[in-house]
Write a structure and sequence with these properties.
The structure holds two protein chains of two kinds. Chain A is an all-alpha fold. Chain A is 69% helix and 0% strand. Chain A folds into two domains: 79 residues, RNA polymerase sigma factor, region 2, helix turn helix motif (Rna Polymerase Sigma Factor, Chain: A), CATH 1.10.1740.10; 91 residues, Winged helix-like DNA-binding domain superfamily/Winged helix DNA-binding domain (Arc Repressor Mutant, subunit A). The N and C termini of chain A lie far apart (67 Å). By secondary structure, chain B is mainly α. The N and C termini of chain B lie far apart (79 Å). The chains are: A mainly alpha, B mainly alpha. At the A-B interface, helix 1, helix 2, helix 3, helix 7 and helix 8 of A face helix 4 and helix 5 of B. The structure holds zinc ion (ZN). The site of zinc ion (ZN) has 6 residues of chain B, from helix 1.
């Protein structure tokens, strides 16, 4: 193997590997806590990035570049298996009138200072994939509705309704935890 | 005080349709996500300036979203992943 190839690899490793935790974190949330799937996603992302390394502009945001590759890689897989219908049970549950129970029990949101993050992360992981991906892209990654819509290949209105239902479902889970903890009655 | 010829501005604009609480609350996430157009955003903001019912509701949703935005930043790659990535890159370089 040539010296320039070795230098290129060393340079890539220096720039890219420091973002491994962030990439794994995003991969893990997108795949709903499935660690082997998340690791595969990170590996595939790193391989694609390495092959495209000559096209990366030095001095620009390497982390953002890698995260975009990871998102796109995930979305390609997601679209291929997208034919599954949304579980009806979720739609019905999410519309239940108690969706404001948390607000009514704790309007000042003190629970957010006391809840254990892992419980909420588990609740995100448990969301049906179509809802989870919308929440992760919007709320954890900060993408706009339009960006989420384009990535997921759905109308902006569908992004809105999925975010609404998913967020209300999360609040419902938070309410249940708050009751379990004896934090609200 | 303002002269009669001065165009009314902000909350005092008389021709503007006022939002009901229901309409304001239906826009809570779009408002907090910064996804409303300028006119709609202003209409919600003006409603919130005056509505004691909606304001705490919006405040609560903002706290909720702030909380969710902070989640998931602390994840660490599992041991072994970095080594496997390095091996893969070395194999790719050969
Ligand atoms: Zn109101």
């Amino acid at each position: 193997m040539s010296i320039p190839a070795e230098q290129r690899r060393a340079e890539f490793e220096d720039e890219a590997l420091i973002h491994l935790d962030a990439l794994f974190g995003l991969a893990l949330r997108l795949s709903g806590g499935d660690e082997p799937r998340a690791e595969d996603l990170v590996q595939e992302t790193m391989l694609k990035a390495y092959r495209a390394w000559d096209r990366f502009e030095a001095g620009t945001n390497c982390r953002a570049w890698l995260m975009t590759i990871l998102r796109n890689t995930f979305i390609n897989q997601f679209r291929k298996q997208k034919s599954r219908p949304v579980p009806v049970e979720f739609d019905q549950l999410a519309e239940r009138p108690s969706s404001d129970a948390l607000y009514e029990a704790d309007p000042e949101g003190r629970i957010f200072d006391h809840i254990i993050d892992d419980q909420v992360i588990a609740a995100i992981d448990e969301l049906p994939e179509e809802f989870r991906v919308a929440v992760v892209l919007s709320d954890l990654e900060g993408l706009s509705y339009q960006e989420v819509a384009e990535l997921m290949d759905i109308p902006v209105g569908t992004v809105k309704s999925r975010l609404f239902r998913a967020r209300k479902r999360l609040q419902g889970r938070l309410y249940e935890y708050a009751v379990e903890m004896g934090y609200v009655k | 005080m303002t002269e009669c010829s001065t165009p009314p501005t902000g909350a005092e604009r008389p021709g503007e349709p006022k939002l009901s609480c229901e309409e304001a609350l239906a826009r809570v996430y779009e408002y907090l996500d910064g996804e409303l157009g300028a006119a709609d955003h202003d209409a919600v903001r003006r409603h919130l300036e005056k509505c004691r019912n909606c304001y705490p509701h919006f405040d609560f949703e903002r706290l909720f979203l702030d909380y969710v935005h902070e989640l998931g930043a602390g994840e660490k790659a599992r041991p072994g992943l970095e080594d496997r990535v390095r091996e893969m890159l070395a194999a790719e370089t050969d």
